[in-house]
Amino acid sequence: MQIKFTKNEMEKLLELLSIADWVLTSMDVEEDERKDDYLKLLQKLYHEAYESGMTKEIEYDEDAKDYYLSEDWEEETQVRDFIEEYEDASFWEELTFRLADRDIDRKMNGKTPKNFEEHVAMFTKIQSKYEEEFEKNRLENLEVVSGKKETKKTVAKATAAKKAPTKKTAVKPAQTKKTTAKPAQAKKSVAKSQTKKTKK
User: Which tens digit of pLDDT belongs to each residue from 29-42?
Assistant: First the structure.
């Protein structure tokens, strides 16, 4: 099979290959043999482009014996724009999806929704809240909340303070009020932080 390309079509093909190469290998920390055939095909296509005179777009590394897309050439294309747009959209999509999925698991306490429609309704409602929050504030209000252990510890201290003998000279009304308010404050902090983690 033979396919003829114009110079402009070959450049667009190389841009497509650049995007594919990025998706395939940009997150690799070690070699993955599942990708060998794909990488060999990329090298074959880069070689053909290089041999056809596209030396501005393709560079050859004598030491590694591999062909690479020229960084200078890539900067003149829309490749990076497309990749960044995809990564940004994918980030928010995954963030809201996983947060909504987590919240449903917590709400159901390990149980399964009655039916698919119920699950979709719950998921859509929760995900929409996260989408609205992140669209308005991005990551400004997203924080890691102190673990439940600290909350329980605060409650335990407050309970112990209530049971302890009170001395008129040592415990003032204002101090007692402040101590008993700690559990509520801890719960409010957790709820507030969880609410602030809401979008698709």
Answer: 999 999 999 999 99
